[in-house]
Amino acid sequence: MANRLTVRAEYLRCRTWGHAWEEFVPRNTRVSWGELWPLRCVRCGTERFDVINALGQLGQRRYVHPEDYSLAADETPTRDAFRVELAGELSRQHRNNGKGRK
Predict the structure, then answer these.
(1) What is the percent of the chain where pLDDT is above 90?
(2) CB–CB of 15/91 below 8 Å?
């Protein structure tokens, strides 16, 4: 199972909920055909590069993850395990945010 020591909080959210994409302008990235749609996750920094053809079809997709984002296949938890870990993390945050309030 994922744990807080090996999966950063923003990575845990992206692996559980999916990435929070926004457009960005990449440097030195060109395509020889189609239109490039570059996206970057606002939480974890993963970049996605889609190339769309003239019919609107996805012709190519490439991801660039932060260096510490990837996990080995044998240590990658299931999506369910990520959900359990995130639920615990959110519960801990909620409890900590409530401390000291009257």
Answers:
(1) 62
(2) no
- Residue 3 inside a domain? The answer is no
Amino acid at 93: Q
Per-residue pLDDT of 60-77, as tens digits, reads 999 999 999 988 888 888
Q: Using alpha carbons only, what angle is made at residue 42 by residues 35 and 13, rounded to the nearest 5 degrees?
A: 120
* N- to C-terminal Cα separation, the chain: 36
Average pLDDT value for the chain: 88
Compute CA distances 38 → 21, 44, 49, 71, 98, whole Å. 9, 15, 5, 24, 39
Domain span at residue 29 reads 9-98
Q: What is the SS3 assignment for 37?
A: strand
Residue 70 lies in a domain: yes
Average pLDDT over residues 17-40: 93
Q: Is 1 contained in some domain?
A: no
- Global pTM reads 0.78
